[in-house]
Each structure stands twice: as structure tokens, then as C-alpha cells.
Design brief:
This protein is α/β, with parallel strands linked by helices. It folds into 2 domains: about 240 residues, Alkaline Phosphatase, subunit A (3-Layer(aba) Sandwich), CATH 3.40.720.10; about 140 residues, no CATH class. The strands form 3 sheets. An 8-stranded mixed sheet has the order 11-10-12-1-13-14-2-15, with helices on both faces. It starts with a strand and ends with a helix.
């Protein structure tokens, strides 16, 4: 049996007036996902346990079959694993975004203008992180470059007991209300404030401003945690796995799960990502692996940007360039296989951040053929009375693999 998981990050949404009360998932043309919904086991799953922030870290941990209450220690340690940073027991990793702050004339007050600095390129970002390293590193504080706006800071013998706001949750809000607060918060606040002086006049930002792009004029620290201890898929299910994603967080989860991380050229996490390459690499990996996890970030990024047209396009591209080719390839190359299709969480366009409501899923088994009359792959699945309801999201993977 071959297993493949198709994650359209943040695909689920809420009704939008400009779309006549439809969601982007309902509005999008997605014939391949609709076909899976008609012929598979359909259901609704809560990937965010009560009391947890609705982050992709918690959601994907749940989907992979790990109980967040038992295994979740924070987002940044997962990203550390992805970029090859080994954490000691007392190290605390922090996610370090390059963000755009919009200051008033006095440069004292600022709002969060963009959590991604206009989706800054990795090449530009590395130059900025190099400057941050030169200006802010110490025996206790070390910075590591990542991809685009996503980077890492490790605080040796640091504090995890700090309230830190995800920057995508505070768009257009005064940052004064969301600065780190808690044990030794002064260290983090000082780093963030000093970063503004370092980045403000940097040549990379001057060039971006010249071309009408948003400057990366501050770092933002959040998502802290220590190294988790997670059993591998070989230990948990006896399966050899692989994972494809443009996002360090998801790749880090895959590393802890013992997966091979497939390096697909041209994956960006945005609308220009190499969708077709993800499908091709996944199918090839299944020749030797038992399980492949494909994560596509673009619907989530479109939700954060508040652009429903981009979200519809991301969903349609996911359907036509990933779901369709994967299903065709599975039928041509393998006899017995199961497919799990779902978002990790909702990212409603109108709120521009993650929410914790249950999301629709489909489990398709090549040996079975359901007939869900009138079903389509969208949020309306939750309104049907013939669905499977999973309230503890981490249990869904057990069902998917074991039946």
C-alpha cells in the first residue's frame, strides 16, 4: 500500500460577499478534488486542539498523527531542524521574520505593515541577515539565514516563557501592544529595536524602495521553543516516508518524523511555486517510499494577504497541477494506494490569519469506490449528515494508515 497526503495550506475559508457568499474553495474550479470527494470517505476534522494557537505547526503536527498536547514545544525548533541547526537541551529557538513596519514621522510608533517584507527574495534576505549577525550576535544570541522572510534566532539558555505575537496576526496594528512580554522580554525587545537601526539604511532596502518594493526594516521574534522529542514514522507506523514543502516549519516536522526531505527545484511557497515538480517528485519517491507528504503553501499566503483572487488561483493551480497529476500517476504506476486531501487549517481572506474551525478532508482508497452524491470538495462537506467527524485531529492519521 502506498500513502500520499495532499495539503493545500489554509485552503478553507469563510463566505465572502464579493463572491456572492461563496468561499474561495467553493468558487474555484477544482474538478480533481471534487472527484475525490465524490468517490472517497469525506469528513470534517479539528486539527487545532482546544487551547492551542491555530498555527501551521500545531495543525501539521496533528495531521501527521502526533498529539500536540504531548509533542508540541514551539514552531521555531522545527524550523531549526529544517535548516540544519542542532539545538542543545537549553537552547531556545525563535522564528525571526524580516518584516515591514510602517513608522510615523517621529519613528517612535509603528504598525505591522507586512509580515513578509513583500515576499522578499532569499538572496536579498541573506544580505540583511548577514548585517543582523554582524550587529547583534553575541555569545548568547546567534542568527541563521533561512528562506525569503523566514529566518531563525537561537538564544542559548534563553527563556521560553514569553508571549510573542505572530506577525501575520497583527497586520495594520500598533506593534506597541504586541511586543514580547514575559520572562527576560527586554532581551528580545532590544534586539528588535536595534535591528531597525541596522536595516533602515541598508543598500538592499534602498534598492527595494527605489523599485517601489517594501523594505525589510525590522526583525520580528516569535514562535519560540526547545527541541522536541518525536517518534519517527518507522517507529510509529513502520513506514518509510518523504516530504515536499517550501516551508522550513513543515520540513522540520518531516525531519523529526524521519522522512527524506525532497528538494524540488523552484518551490517558493508562493503563487509562482513549482507545483508540477512537487507532483513529479512525489510520484517518483513512492517507487521506494511508502508514504509521501506534499505541502503547498500558496493558498495560505494568499489568505494572509487578504486577496481572494490570488487564493482562488492558488487553489485552482493546486488542483490542476498537483492533485490531478498525482491521481493520474498513482493510477498508472501503483495498484493499491490511499490519498488524504485536506487543508491544515482555515486562513480566511477577511481576517487574514489562521482560525481554528474544523476543516474538510477526503480519504480516497483505490480498492473502494464510494458514491457521495452531490459532494464537492469544499466547506459544505461539514453540512452533510453522511460524513466522518474527527474531533481529535491527530487520530485521523491512524485511521488513514491503519483503516
Amino acid at each position: 500500500m502506498k500513502y500520499i497526503v495532499l495539503i493545500g495550506d489554509g485552503m478553507a475559508d469563510r463566505p465572502i460577499g464579493e463572491l456572492g457568499g461563496l468561499t474561495p474553495l467553493k468558487k474555484a474550479s477544482a474538478p480533481n478534488m471534487d472527484e475525490l470527494a465524490r468517490n472517497g470517505i469525506i469528513g470534517s476534522v479539528r486539527t487545532i486542539p482546544e487551547g492551542f494557537h491555530p498555527g501551521s505547526d500545531v495543525a501539521n503536527l496533528s495531521i501527521l498523527g502526533y498529539d500536540p498536547a504531548k509533542y508540541y514545544t514551539g514552531r521555531a525548533p522545527l524550523e531549526a531542524a529544517s535548516i540544519g541547526v542542532k539545538l542543545d537541551e537549553n537552547d531556545v529557538a525563535y522564528r525571526c521574520n524580516l518584516v515591514t513596519l510602517k513608522f510615523d514621522r517621529s519613528r517612535i510608533h509603528a504598525v505591522m505593515d507586512d509580515y513578509s517584507s513583500g515576499h522578499i527574495t532569499t538572496e536579498e534576505a541573506r544580505e540583511l541577515i548577514k548585517a543582523i549577525k554582524a550587529g547583534l550576535e553575541s555569545d548568547e544570541i546567534v542568527f541563521y539565514p533561512g528562506v525569503s522572510y523566514r529566518h531563525l534566532m537561537v538564544w542559548k539558555n534563553g527563556s521560553v516563557h514569553v508571549e510573542c505575537a505572530p506577525p501575520h496576526d497583527i497586520l495594520d496594528k500598533d506593534i506597541a501592544d504586541y511586543l514580547p512580554a514575559g520572562e527576560r522580554d527586554g532581551v528580545l525587545r532590544e534586539l528588535m529595536m536595534k535591528s531597525v537601526d541596522i536595516l533602515w539604511g541598508h543598500p538592499v532596502n534602498k534598492e527595494r524602495l527605489k523599485h517601489g518594493k517594501k523594505p525589510a526594516n525590522s526583525i520580528w521574534l516569535w514562535g519560540q521553543g526547545k527541541r522536541p522529542h518525536i517518534p519517527t514514522y518507522k517507529e510509529k507506523y513502520g513506514l518509510k516516508g518523504a516530504l515536499i514543502s517550501a516551508v522550513d516549519l513543515t520540513k522540520g516536522l518531516g525531519i523529526y518524523a524521519g522522512f527524506e526531505i525532497l528538494k524540488v527545484p523552484g518551490v517558493t511557497g508562493w503563487l509562482d511555486t513549482n507545483y508540477s515538480g512537487k507532483a513529479e517528485y512525489a510520484l517518483n519517491a513512492l517507487e521506494s517510499a511508502d508514504f509521501v507528504y506534499i505541502h503547498v503553501e500558496s493558498p495560505d499566503e494568499a489568505g494572509h494577504s487578504g486577496n481572494y483572487e490570488n487564493k482562488i488561483k492558488a487553489i485552482e493551480d493546486f488542483d490542476s497541477l498537483v492533485v490531478g497529476p498525482v491521481m493520474k500517476g498513482l493510477k498508472e504506476r501503483f495498484k493499491d494506494y490511499r490519498v488524504l486531501l485536506m487543508p491544515d487549517h482555515a486562513t480566511p481572506v477577511k481576517v487574514r490569519t489562521h482560525t481554528d474551525e474544523p476543516v474538510p478532508f477526503v480519504i480516497y482508497d483505490s480498492r473502494l469506490n464510494k458514491n457521495n452524491e452531490g459532494a464537492a470538495y469544499d466547506e459544505s462537506i461539514a453540512e452533510r449528515n453522511d460524513i466522518m467527524v474527527v474531533n481529535e485531529g491527530y487520530r485521523l492519521m491512524d485511521y488513514f494508515i491503519k483503516g
